[in-house]
Amino acid sequence: MQPRIDDKIGHRLINTLTCNKLSENAKGQLHYQLWQNNDDQSFAWALSHNESSGGFSRELIHVEHIMAVLTELDQTAQPFHATAFKCLFIGKSVNNASFFAALLVDQGVIRLHPQTTRLLEVSEEYASWPMSLVEHTQDKSTSKRGAKAKVTTDMEDGNAVHQNQH
């Protein structure tokens, strides 16, 4: 879907968060980042760190592309596998789609299907999600869930960022 891997030039790091992986047996958490384009103020997400093993792509995935996939999935009204997000990545890591699905579950735009293991469904509130991202730029002292954030240093980017404590 994206023409090339965005190298993050022209974007600023807004927030770094953590989430659980989708599998209950998976070890460690995933770290992911919200980036904002300096010119048009649009948002993009990137996976940034896996606390255990498993490679992934760190490329930016633009919210407008995510919303296009979510809208398509919502219109089918059917549960789906995490591989539905494979089309968002240029990188070919087998973990990209499932790690990204974990990010979207953490953001509340998709959820685990209540009756079928390994399937997901789009949340009813997904359409309002892009507008809620502005909150990350306005108040970095609390997360969307009201938990206190702590300042950490992201070794990859060398920037002090806020990270939710889960």
Q: Could you list some keywords that capture this structure?
A:
166 residues; alpha+beta; 4-stranded antiparallel β-sheet; two-stranded antiparallel sheet; 4 helices; 21% helix; globular
Number of helices: 4
- Average pLDDT confidence is 84
Unreliable stretches covering 5 or more consecutive residues: 141-166
Would you count the extended β strands for me?
A: 8
What best-fitting shape do the alpha-carbon axes yield?
A: globular
Structural class: alpha+beta
Largest pleated sheet: 4 strands, antiparallel
Oligomer: single chain
In percent, how much strand structure appears in the residues?
25-35%
Strand order of the largest sheet: 1-2-3-4
Distance between the termini: 32 Å
Count of structural domains: 1
Structural description of this entry:
The chain has 166 residues and is α+β, with helices and mostly antiparallel strands. It has one domain (11-164). The chain is built from 4 helices and 8 strands. The protein has helices at residues 63-76, 96-107, 129-132, 134-138, and strands spanning 11-20, 29-37, 43-50, 61-62, 110-112, 120-122, 149-154, 159-164. The strands form 3 sheets. Strands 1-2-3-4 form a 4-stranded antiparallel beta sheet. Strands 5-6 form a two-stranded antiparallel ribbon.
